[in-house]
Amino acid sequence: xxxxxxxxxxxxxxxxxxxxxxxxxxxxxxxxxxxxxxxxxxxxxxxxxxxxxxxxxxxxxxxxxxxxxxxxxxxxxxxxxxxxxxxxxxxxxxxxxxxxxxxxxxxxxxxxxxxxxxxxxxxxxxxxxxxxxxxxxxxxxxxxxxxxxxxxxxxxxxxxxxxxxxxxxxxxxxxxxxxxxxxxxxxxx
Length: 189
Ligand SMILES: [Fe+2]
Ligand SMILES: [Fe+2]
Prior knowledge:
With 189 residues, the protein is an all-alpha fold. Helices cover 68% and strands 0% of the residues. The radius of gyration is 16 Å and the shape is globular. It binds fe (ii) ion (FE2) (2 copies). One fe (ii) ion (FE2) binds next to loops.
């Protein structure tokens, strides 16, 4: 497995400065949330480092990377290929960087769409991506506060924000995002 320094070098070379600052913010926030909720902080940091490892690739490259690995993509997946930087990042992390930890890879994989029944690490990276210190949009302060109080409430709020934002822009809502949101509501404690 690549050293942390080698992973950071790769990210510096392949992402913009702002994206790199974002990644470091997601690492920091994922570690804090891991401490808050009793998850493994090293796994949280590693998942955060790799979560946007494919963000720089264009849609056709993302599609090719995933299909070459043997995964089937739906027409819905291909209609919004930017969302594939999650699964493609997990493939880069596994094949190029030698990361084998399934939990770490899955937390990166599902950070774009979410999924039903997310585990703690997946929730942490999903939320950290949206609330890290350099994020600035209406509602981010509320989401930061909620994330420290109740991660499931924060997750539901995050899906609601995302879905509203996508509708406002007239874009396609991935069905995994709808399923993720509904799963939380159906299984609310
Ligand atoms: Fe991302
Ligand atoms: Fe991100």
